[in-house]
Design brief:
six-stranded antiparallel β-barrel; about 40% strand; single chain
């Protein structure tokens, strides 16, 4: 029994020694180094920048009332389409008592003056028929009567406007109590409700906004770009828009505005840019959608390209390992001239030909 156990231990020891010997032998053998190969191809290289921003309508108008009062009716709500002249709201005028009293006093005075002028005119008409007065005296009284008649009408219209917001004899289209759209587009917001008080717009007051209307067929991409890249932009450049809210759909835009003055944001100078977006009629865009714009700063078309990671730099010169024998993988260190790079691929202007094979990175086993 003891002899059997002894032989078993010797056999295990022999196996362990043999395994260690084989491992050390394999480790001592020279390893075969393999490399990736890259083919010099013809392609396009673009250097781009990404600008974050949002989609805004080019024309966005705040509709404000011409009189102060209380909203009695709202004819439109956010999302409705409107045309120029469409009614949006109706306002009930709350007259100022001092102005109302003044307007009523003006009407009473105009009536008195008109009655006095009428009596003078009738008397002069009789005297002229009797050839007692000159014709010029008659004409003066007639003109005074007509003038007082117009003054009474103006006073009554002023009273009507002060009390009701519309002239007594004016047509309905000219009333200030109906707030109308000044452009054709889509109602973006109606910030007031029935019963709210509103203030007219004038020199000293912006007035209450009844509604915001914008033309959603003419949209802009508005974003900001850093000062280090703004100098590379020029009007007319193409922009590729990606709108995240539309499942990253891509659209095109044309750069049409670069701000002449920057603003400081978080310690960096940023310049506003705007691009006219081209959106198909079948796509619904909402104002304020966030978007990213990719702008091509530089481009090379149909040029020789290789991966930039395979370029070796030494003394401000560029080199690649050109494979001269595909069977033995023999390489020659070749100097090349490079051009535009997008960070991954670089243009080769001299030193290589299309179809050449260069050695890439080492393959890790």
């Amino acid at each position: 029994m003891k002899k059997a156990r002894k032989w078993i231990l010797l056999a295990i020891l022999a196996v362990v020694v043999a395994g260690v010997f084989m491992y050390l032998w394999k480790q001592s053998r020279p390893k075969e180094v393999k490399y990736e190969t890259k083919i010099v191809t013809v392609g396009t290289i673009q250097k781009t920048t990404i600008v974050t921003g949002k989609i805004e309508p080019r024309d966005e108008v705040e509709i404000k009332p011409q009189i102060s009062g209380i909203i009695t009716e709202l004819y439109k709500q956010a999302g409705d389409k409107v045309r120029v002249g469409d009614a949006i709201a109706k306002i009930k005028v709350i007259p100022d008592m001092a102005q109302l009293n003044s307007a009523e006093s003006r009407v009473r005075l105009a009536k008195y003056n008109l009655e006095n002028a009428r009596q003078v005119f009738e008397r002069d008409s009789l005297l002229l028929a009797q050839e007692v007065i000159a014709h010029e005296t008659y004409e003066k009284s007639r003109l005074q009567y007509i003038s007082n008649l117009e003054e009474l009408q103006a006073a009554e219209d002023h009273l009507s406007i002060t009390r009701d917001g519309v002239a007594k004899k004016a047509e309905t289209d000219f009333t200030n109590t109906i707030v109308k759209s000044t452009i054709t587009g889509t109602v973006l917001d109606v910030p007031v409700k029935v019963g709210n008080s509103v203030v007219l717009t004038n020199t000293f007051n912006d007035g209450t906004t009844i509604a915001t209307v914008a033309d959603m067929q003419d949209l802009l991409f508005v974003g900001s770009i850093d000062e280090t890249e703004v100098g590379k932009l020029r009007e007319g450049m193409r922009m590729d828009l990606v709108i995240g809210a539309l499942n990253d759909q891509r659209f095109t835009a044309t750069l049409e505005y670069i701000a002449p003055k920057g603003t400081e944001q978080n310690g960096a100078m940023m310049f506003e840019i705007k691009g006219a977006a081209t959106i198909p009629d079948t796509v619904i865009i909402r104002a304020g959608y966030s978007a990213n714009a990719e702008i091509v700063l530089n481009e090379r078309v149909n040029v020789l390209t290789i991966p930039e990671a395979n370029v070796e730099m030494e003394d401000n010169k560029s080199f690649v390992q050109l494979i001269t024998d595909t069977t033995t993988q023999e390489v020659t260190r070749t100097e090349i001239q490079t051009g535009l790079s997008d960070g991954l691929t670089i243009e080769v202007t001299e030193g290589l030909n299309e179809g050449d094979i260069i050695r890439g990175n080492q393959i890790t086993q």
